[in-house]
Amino acid sequence: MDLVPKNTQANLRHASVTHGEQRLQAFMQEVSGRALIMMESATKSSDIAMDLVQEAFISLYKSYPLKPTDEWYALFYTILNHKLYDWKRKEQRSAIPFSFFKKKNLEFDDDFPEEQFADEYNIDPAEIINQYTTVNDIKKAIETLPTRQQQAFMLRAWEGFSTKTTAEIMQCSEGSVKTHYHRAIQALQQMLSHLNPYHQNKGMTDE
């Protein structure tokens, strides 16, 4: 015997679905902007970026509708990371005629041996991207980074994920995350340094 009338059960299910959709909508509004910038930097296409982000949101809600919102963040970026990898592999295969005849590793070409770096989580992104830098300058600089460095920087500096969580999202070791992140910081500092008036004045003084 049901303790709750069928009509009430239906209403409860409807209320649960409605709440879940509202929660997803709020989550999308919060993270979609940063996620789109990350995917645009990686794919060089706003349309493809939009498709990947939307697919990730759909997959997130289908697979983890009952997960707490605070657990959605890492799950979403893990799914988005997988979507990006799949897209990259398809692009690489289509760019290589008869690639199915070749035993070739189609992973990203910006992996390199891990180096020993301290966890740079406490680095202030403002020291890398100062107040004199425009959003467009930032995007252009990030787009020039290898994909893995883009991911490490965006996930650590923009999203604030720990090294451990970033490693889980990127499916690599924590040492690899530190290496990618360190290299990204070095590259961005070099690319954006000309926009810092202090840097320019110092160079004139040194002359």
Structure description:
The chain is mainly alpha-helical. The protein has two domains: 6-98, no CATH class; 125-206, Winged helix-like DNA-binding domain superfamily/Winged helix DNA-binding domain (Arc Repressor Mutant, subunit A, Orthogonal Bundle). It has nine helices and no strands. It has helices at 6-43, 46-63, 69-95, 125-128, 135-143, 147-158, 163-170, 174-192, 197-206. Helix 1 (6-43) packs across helix 5 (135-143). It is globular and about 50 Å long.
Approximate helicity band: over 70%
Overall average residue pLDDT:
76
Q: Characterize the largest beta sheet: strand count, sense, and whether it forms a barrel.
A: none
Our count of helices gives 9
Q: How many structural domains are formed by the residues?
A: 2
User: How do the helices and strands follow one another from N- to C-terminus?
Assistant: HHHHHHHHH
Q: Categorize the overall geometry.
A: globular
Strand percentage, roughly?
under 5%
Structural class of the secondary structure composition?
mainly alpha
Ranges where pLDDT stays below 50 over 5 or more residues in a row are 8-12, 97-109, 198-207
- Distance from N terminus to C terminus (CA atoms, Å) equals 89 Å
β-strand number: 0
Rg:
21 Å
Provide a concise account of the structure shown.
The chain has 207 residues and is an all-alpha fold. The protein contains 9 helices and no strands. Helix content is 70%, strand content 0%.
What is the strand and helix layout of this fold?
Layout lengths: L5 H38 L2 H18 L5 H27 L29 H4 L6 H9 L3 H12 L4 H8 L3 H19 L4 H10 L1
Helix pairs in contact: 1-2, 1-3, 1-5, 1-6, 2-3, 3-7, 5-8, 6-8, 7-8
